[in-house]
Write a structure and sequence with these properties.
Number of helices: 12
Distance between the termini: 34 Å
Order of helices and strands: HHHHHHHHHHHH
Oligomer: single chain
Structural class: mainly alpha
Number of strands: 0
Largest sheet: none
Strand content: under 5%
């Protein structure tokens, strides 16, 4: 057809998805720290931010989930089969057990751990321990869940990542009893990375389409967290500010943390997994630790002590080394 745009190859689509994911993840770390840092007198609590994140994403993805489920059911009816596709009252396009599993790890646990971590630890720590820990946890889970093997060269890359994590998190633990709460943030970042790795491996295990997976985790997290948290805040049990804070602050978090970080990067991340696999996908985010730490230093005036800089270097080296070995294995 004359004038038609050329179709991108699967590899090109995967690389484009990686670029989008990297940019949004970098912005996510900087914005989340700026929004949750107690020293900046935030108008929203970390639990408020999770609420806004899920509300913003839900407004986009719940209607999409309904449409996807109804389309699947129509196709089943036309094929003479029972229209039992989807779950969560027709809003999730995936079966209930998959929706619950992925939604718990990729939706609720990740959000709660990550945003709570930003209230204790600086963005540079998140740069190392969030995207930096993903290849480690994903590789270990892929061995146990998917039966994948880790080559000796990739083990070397993972050891670099562990060393970088220990330089950052270990240094924080040394100050655990002097009143510093940074170690709490580091631990929460590691738990958040583990939760997201569980989700990414489940995506590969069940061969979930990118849009379906992102929609399913949002539907589950939205239906569980949003009404429960709203009720707790309205009753005064939880001191949330989501209903009293300036509307512009809530809308900004809905847009940045919900639409961008969940909808856009969620779909792009899943496209990466389907193209490159879970281990290599997390390794393709090699520039996120350094880029986000540098951005935080420039935008938030956060310090970059020697242990964080060395940890960043080791984590980035381990990720890049893993990417090179994975690419070489494909040749």
């Amino acid at each position: 057809m004359p004038g038609a745009l050329p179709r991108l190859s699967p590899k090109a689509v995967g690389l484009l998805a990686a670029l989008v994911t990297v940019l949004i993840w970098t912005a996510f770390i900087v914005v989340a720290r700026a929004s949750a840092d107690p020293a900046r007198a935030p108008t929203l609590t970390t639990y408020d931010i999770v609420f806004a994140r899920l509300l913003g994403a839900g407004l986009v993805l719940l209607p999409l989930g309904w449409w996807l489920t109804q389309t699947q059911r129509l196709q089943l009816r036309e094929a003479g089969q029972l229209p039992r596709a989807g779950s969560m009252w027709g809003f999730s396009p995936l079966p209930l057990h998959i929706t619950v599993l992925t939604g718990m790890f990729g939706g609720i646990l990740y959000g709660l751990c990550a945003y709570s971590g930003f209230a204790f630890a600086p963005a540079a720590h998140a740069s190392v321990l969030l995207p930096g820990s993903l290849p480690l946890w994903t590789a270990l889970l892929a061995v146990g869940v998917l039966g994948e093997r880790i080559s000796a060269s990739r083990v070397l890359g993972l050891l670099c990542i562990v060393a970088g994590d220990l330089l950052v998190g270990g240094a924080s633990l040394l100050h655990a009893f002097d009143g510093s709460g940074v170690w709490r943030g580091d631990l929460l970042f590691i738990l958040a990375a583990f939760s997201w790795s569980c989700y990414s491996v489940l995506v590969r295990k069940y061969s979930m389409p990118a849009v379906h997976a992102t929609t399913a985790i949002t539907v589950f997290a939205f239906m569980v967290y949003v009404p429960a948290y709203a009720a707790l805040v309205w009753s005064g049990i939880v001191p949330g500010h989501v209903f009293t804070a300036p509307l512009r602050d809530v809308l900004w978090q809905m847009l940045m943390q919900g639409v961008a970080s969940v909808v856009v990067s969620g779909i792009s991340f899943n496209m990466m997994i389907r193209t490159f696999g879970p281990v290599r996908s997390t390794m393709l985010t090699a520039v996120v630790p350094g880029l986000s730490a540098l951005s935080a230093a420039l935008v938030l005036n956060e310090a970059l002590p020697w242990n964080v800089l060395t940890g960043l270097a080791l984590v980035t080296l381990g990720i890049v080394f893993g990417v090179r070995q994975a690419a070489g294995a494909k040749r």
